Amino acid sequence: MTHHTVPAYAALSPQAPLERITVPRREPGEHDILIEIKYAGICHSDIHTVRGEWGAGGDYPIVPGHEIAGVVSAVGAGVTRHTVGDRVGVGCFVDSCRTCESCRAGLEQYCTGELGMVGTYAATGRDGRTTHGGYSTHIVVDENYVLRIPDGIPLDAAAPLLCAGITVYSPLAHWQAGPGKKVAVVGLGGLGHMGVKIAHAMGAEVTVLSQSLRKKDDGLRLGADHYYATSDPATFTALAGTFDLIVNTVSADIDLDSYLSLLKTDGTLVQLGAPEKPLPIAPFALITRRRSFAGSMIGGIPETQKMLDFCGEHGLGADIEVIRADQINEAYERVLASDVRYRFVIDAATI
Description:
The chain has about 350 residues and is α/β, with parallel strands linked by helices.
């Protein structure tokens, strides 16, 4: 298999700042698409992975980035889904086994086959090579794992939808957020701000549960009906038994029992953030009102396309701060300090 190289920003070790290098990309095969990357979002997962914090990371150098928006610049002879010039996106994975029950159901993120879900970066592809992500100028991806970005969404604001957008859309759709449903979003960050926009567009009554009221004006502007500070114990008294669905977007250790107490009978708390340590739950927090504690991870290709189309119809994109590639390391520190409203997006032209 022949390759060419492209510029990228990579971490050479867990402690190292990201720096500009070149990485190999395969020549497009029969069903491959060569994408000129225009924008790549910075996801908290990128930071966890390059710093080896999830016990993952794999071989260095690691080129992160799984919120990719760009334009098709070449297609293989057998490609039918996309043509040169199309606006496209790539999310958290670029392949899967394609034959297991999950893949056949369009739930590739839960692939149980031998290949498994092949992450967009720091994973091993079918060719045995390490995948490199979106902090680069170009990427080659099988057409079955490439999404259409509707014309109504600017490419820079669309990039974070490929991870942050689908991560919140999937549980909101699965647990049927909509008119007559009361939904709470815990945390107003990269995921949370999209959760508010999408739940509001679905017709749900939306409440933000944030540590403080610092971002209250933003929350209400984004579509929240109510905004409460979780640092105030009165919040948990006032909202006891209120919600049909709570989506927890934060990766911090929180007192789950307190949050479970906010659910109605048959309500569900969905965990999206991945804290480093196990989360304790008192059985009676679940038993007493038939409450559920659940998890959810991104979405499959069909659902991700549905999410993009939904966002296109409702004019939804992420609230972003576009940066140059030489600002990536500074942006990482700002993400860790929660100093971004609400997603950094790298302008790939600066790589």
